[in-house]
Every structure is written in C-alpha cells, then in structure tokens.
Automatic annotation (TrEMBL):
Coiled coil: none annotated. It comes from Spodoptera frugiperda. Transmembrane segments: none annotated. Homodimer. It catalyses: RX + glutathione = an S-substituted glutathione + a halide anion + H(+). This is glutathione transferase. CDD domains: GST_C_Sigma_like, GST_N_Sigma_like. The keyword Transferase applies. Residues 1-80, 213-292 form the GST N-terminal domain. The gene is LOC118270149. Pfam families: GST_C_3, GST_N. It comes from the Eukaryota. Residues 82-217, 294-417 form the GST C-terminal domain. Keywords: Transferase.
Length: 417
C-alpha cells in the first residue's frame, strides 16, 4: 500500500510524523516542498484545505498533523489501548499546538522590530508557562506523557526542535525531563539513522518572510518590458498581484507622483519598491537555478541582457515616435537592418551554448522571449521566424509550467490606441 507524506523541507508539524514512520519501519515517500516558494498554486489547489502536511495512502488523503501522527502510529504500542491514557496524551498534544501557535506569528512577522517583540514574548512568557508544566508532567509520569513511549512524545520532540530552529534557541536546556525525552526520541532505532541522513535543518527567516510578503507588479495591460517578469513569477510559482494600468489614460498625475522615478514597471514586496525591469526580473528569479552561482557566467548573462536592451531601446524609439513619416522610416530601419544585426548574433550565441545564453535556462532567456513577442506586436512581424534557435527558445519559454497556463489565460496582446 503506497504511502506518501507531503510537507516542507524543514522540521515542524510533519517531523514527528516522519519520526514515527521511520521508528515503526514503514516505507513511505517523503515529498518535500520548498518553503521559500510557497504557496505553489498548482500544488495548493490539490490540497483538501490548501495546507500541509498531507498524508496519502492507497488513494486516500488525510490532513492535520495530529490526526496523521496518531494514524501512522496505530497498530503499535505507541497508541495505548486504555481510553483514559489516550485522552491524556491528546490533551497534552493539543496544548503543545496551543503553544506552537504562539511561535508562528513571530516567524511570519516581516517587520524586524515587531518580530523581536513577538519572539521575546514567546521566549520570556509562553515557553516558561507551558514547558514548566510539560516538564512536571513528564517527571510525574516516568519521563513520558502516559508512563511509556507514545505517539504524543514524538509530537513533543518535534515541537521542541521546531522551536529551536525558528527561534534560534535551545528550549529544553532549562527543562531536564523535556531534554531527556527529546534525546531519547532522537536516538531511537530508525529515527537516529534518519536524522543522520538528513543532517541539521536551518531556515533563513529573512528570506522566508520575503516569500510570504504581498507582491505586486505594476505595468500596462500589454506585452512589453514587464512580460518577462510576469513569466518569471509564474514559472517560479510566486503569488503576486498583477496590476495593469490603462496606457490611454497615462500619465495619471496622482499615481505617477507615487512612483520613485515616475515610470513603470514597479515591483512591490511588502513595503519595499523596486524599479527598472531588468533589476526586477533578476530579483524575482533569485534563489532559483535561473541565477547561476558562477561570477563569470553571471557577467556573461548580464552582457547578453544589456545587449537585448540595446536592441529594445531602438524599438522603443519607434513606439514613442508620433510623426507618421518618421515612424515609417524607423520601422523600415528596424526591419531591414537593426533586427538582423542583433538577432543574427543572438542566434549565434544560442547555437554555441546549447540553445541558451549560458548553457542552461536562465532569467535572461525570459527577457529575450518577452521582447521578441513585444517586437512582433509593435512591428507587425514574426522576427524569430528567420532565426530557428531564437524561435525554439521562445516556444520553449512559452511552454514552461506556469508560463503556459498564464499565456493561455492572458489571450492575445492588445495595445489600444
């Protein structure tokens, strides 16, 4: 009977479940999602209540960490047969979750001052209140929640470990019975080997908070320099508000005054603002393999994207030209000279690098794709048709997960004069 447990790649609500599954020698698929790119809309939509952990067994789905932990411990001596002992364990684990709910706001708080205040309250008030009582209960019951090892003891261990990671503390140092139990759980057969195989957990709270901040991208309702950013956000599964302004009524003096440099696109994350399309595109791609770690490769990509924008600046001049005759001349120059000058070279770069600018997919290919589409619309052409590798790359980007669904939903580019 195939079993699957889905959660994030850190300890927390699901770690006690993993411990129990390993201790009881149950084979299961340990599915781990990236906490920094959560929520993933495609995964979230499949979850019964839109949250993790989720346990699957033979086509059946179970939610809620405590329900899962108790279920996977069934049929073993981790679940007592005596109803009263079961009730006592449940009363303690529900109280543990009451405590842990006080930890979560401090973890999710993006404001450093508020985060420090919340963390201080947890450490100085909530932990002593709850863990002095948990510690006494363990002392009174032979070091366990009900006189012998049970599924609830695994939950206690997991909550302590998660608190240590999120709060940067050693919670159990002042509570000897709690500390002894945690060490006992971590040294159990199956659990000990599992812990050794995964190594210690860590979390970048600043990055975690950024991933949960409200994100907003402002641009006009057509395809141009913000489209690569939209592609990147959809491909990397970042939820954001796609704010589109009607260019026919632009500039809007009231809104324009609020922009740092009076122009779009504008990206907002929490209370921070970022301008310039290339800076935004590169930023939203951070933390993924779309940004290479090698400095030389980064520089090569920067050179390529700046050259792409050298080309786009000439298209931009054509778009902004109001005089019909001058516009006609600019278009002719673009189609007869400029496009081939740049795109014959882009084609060569792609050919020499396996279809990409640096040997693998990066944020820069998204920029090229978006500006090819924009050029086609404004110049009434299909410029990639003469450049097979450029065409293949554009088709690949538009077929990527997330991008493909977005392209289908957005419909054709419409620039209303």
């Amino acid at each position: 009977m195939p079993k699957k447990l889905s959660y994030f790649n850190l300890n927390g609500l699901a770690e006690p479940i993993r411990y129990i599954l390993h201790y009881t020698n149950q084979e299961f698929e340990d599915v781990r999602h990236d906490v920094y790119s959560w929520p993933d809309p495609t995964v979230k939509a499949t979850l019964p209540y839109g949250q993790l952990p989720v346990y699957e067994e033979d086509g059946r789905v179970l939610t809620q960490s405590l329900a899962i932990a108790k279920y996977v411990a069934r049929g073993t001596d981790l679940v007592p047969t005596d109803p009263w002992k079961n009730a006592v364990i449940e009363s303690i684990v529900f109280t543990l979750i009451d405590y842990f709910k006080s930890v979560v706001p401090s973890v999710r708080e993006a404001d450093p001052v508020k985060c420090a205040e919340l963390t201080k309250e947890v450490i100085e008030k909530n932990i002593p209140f709850y863990f002095s009582k948990f510690n006494k209960h363990l002392e009174d019951n032979g070091g366990f929640l009900s006189g012998k090892l049970s599924w609830g003891d695994f939950v206690l261990c997991g909550v302590v470990e998660a608190s240590d990671m999120f709060l940067g503390i050693d919670l159990s140092k002042d509570y000897p019975a709690v500390r002894t139990l945690v060490q006992h759980i971590r040294n159990l057969p199956g659990v000990k080997e599992y812990i050794k195989s995964i190594g210690p957990y860590s979390i970048d709270l600043a990055r975690f908070n950024l991933s949960t901040m409200a994100k907003k991208l402002h641009y006009f309702n057509f395809i141009a320099i913000a489209e690569p950013i939209r592609y990147l956000l959809h491909y990397t599964k970042q939820e954001f508000e796609d704010v589109r302004h009607d260019h026919r009524f632009w500039p809007n003096p009231e809104f324009k005054e609020k922009l740092p440099y009076g122009q779009f696109p504008l990206y907002e994350e929490g209370d921070r603002m970022l301008t310039q399309s290339l800076a935004i595109a590169k930023y939203v791609a951070r933390g993924t393999d779309l940004i290479p770690s090698d400095p030389w490769t980064q520089a090569v990509l920067d050179a390529a994207v700046y050259t792409i924008y050298d080309y786009w600046s000439k298209v931009g001049a054509f778009i902004k030209e109001k005089d019909p005759e001058k516009k006609k001349v600019l278009k002719s120059e673009l189609l007869s000279e400029t496009v081939d000058f740049f795109f014959s070279r882009f084609e060569k770069d792609l050919k020499e690098n396996g279809g990409y600018f640096s040997g693998k997919l990066s944020w820069v290919e998204f920029v090229l794709c978006g500006l090819v589409e924009a050029s086609n619309y404004f110049l009434d052409t299909e410029l990639e048709k003469k450049y097979p590798r450029v065409e293949a790359l554009v088709n690949k980007i538009k077929s990527l997960p997330g991008v493909k669904e977005y392209v289908a939903a957005r419909g054709p580019n419409v620039f209303k004069h």
